[in-house]
Structure formats: C-alpha cells, structure tokens
Amino acid sequence: MTLQLQKINLGTPPLGRDGNSNRESSAKTNDNMAAIEAWASALAVDVSALTSNAGALADDVRALTGAVAMFACKTPPAGWLKGNGAAVSRTTYARLFGVIGTTFGAGDGSTIFNLPELRAEFPRGWDDGRGVDAGRVFGSVQAQALSSHQHKTAIGFDGSNLFGWGDGNATPIFGSEVQSGVLRVIGSVTQSGGAARVAYTDAALMGVSGETRPRNVALLACIKY
C-alpha cells in the first residue's frame, strides 16, 4: 500500500491583523499533512510486514498439527482436541487426518478416523530401531509390566530360622517370630529336615495397586488439529 501526499494550495492568504498569521497557518497545515503522510506511510509498511509475518505464523501453527500436550484445565484450548480416542470427521479435521491418518483407528473406514486414546496413559518415545523397546509398533498400546528383580530381607530363614508346615501341601505355619507387614509367602517352599525355607513379600510396607506406576499428576492430554 502506497500513500501519496496531496498538499492544499490556498494561494496567497490575505494578511491577518498581525500581518501574516493566515500565511503561517497555511504553512503549518501543510507541514502537519506532511508529517501525517510520513506516519501513514510507515504504518503501511508495518501492516505489509505484519501480513507477511501472519503467513509465516500460520505455517508455524500448521506445523504443530498432530502434537500432543498436557493442559492444566478440563477443557481443550482452541485448536486442540481431547486425546480420548474419539472418532472425528476426516473432512472437518482434514489437516490432522493428513498427519496421523488411521494410526489410532480407521473409524468407519471412509468418513471418520480415531484420535489417540491418551486418558490414564503414560506416553513413551517410540523405539524407532534403537532396540530398547524392540519390535514396538508406532502408536501401539503396551500393557503394564514389572521388570524381573530381587528383594533382600533383614530376616534370615536359614539355620535356626526355618519354619515347619502343618499339612501335605507344605502350607507354612508362621508364629509370632515373623515380623508384622508380611502379606503372603511367594515362591516355592523347600523341605529340609522337617522344616520349610520360605520367601515373603513386604509389599504392605510400600503400597500395592492393580498397576505399576510412579508418582504422577492427572492433567488433560490433547492433540493439535
């Protein structure tokens, strides 16, 4: 956008009572118009640059399509959808469909597709050939698991600390000698001279649940469309 200064030609103004006030007024008017023209031209340049930057910003926003983020609110911000596995329109969310496709579900196979189901899930970086989580399919769900490990206990069960059993199934008989907090015997019970060597779990001291998890905070998982 280009602005062109149009000065007002008032001819030769008549003398005022002070001799030249009308001439000075006309000159100041033209000076003010020149200043306004300069300011407006600079503004036009800024607007043009802003228009160009808006296009670049739009490209940056589009580049985020498919990004997953956590929000400390219960409602998705503008431009985001809940990561709840919902089936949504391939037309309405064409840009998102172009990015994730049917990775998380094909919907009806023609008009809708599924968003990732992220509720109550921990995301994990895709192995992508590294070999730590070998064979993992991108976008797949992985069940909980506990790595094989061992625990040591301060109570010894060898020598004089062996416990007998009272039936043919080798069910241990525990007396008051066993500390509180023992939930159950795990592993095998081995006979040795009429006594049993046993192992136990102290899970009661740590807290147990139906899943293995770290400490965490519940937030809203969303995906950018």
UniProtKB/TrEMBL annotation:
Xref: Pfam families: Collar
Superkingdom of this protein's organism: Bacteria
Transmembrane spans: none
Start and end residues of each Phage tail collar domain: 66-123
Gene3D superfamilies referenced in this protein's UniProt entry, alphabetically: Phage tail collar domain
Protein name according to UniProt: Phage tail protein
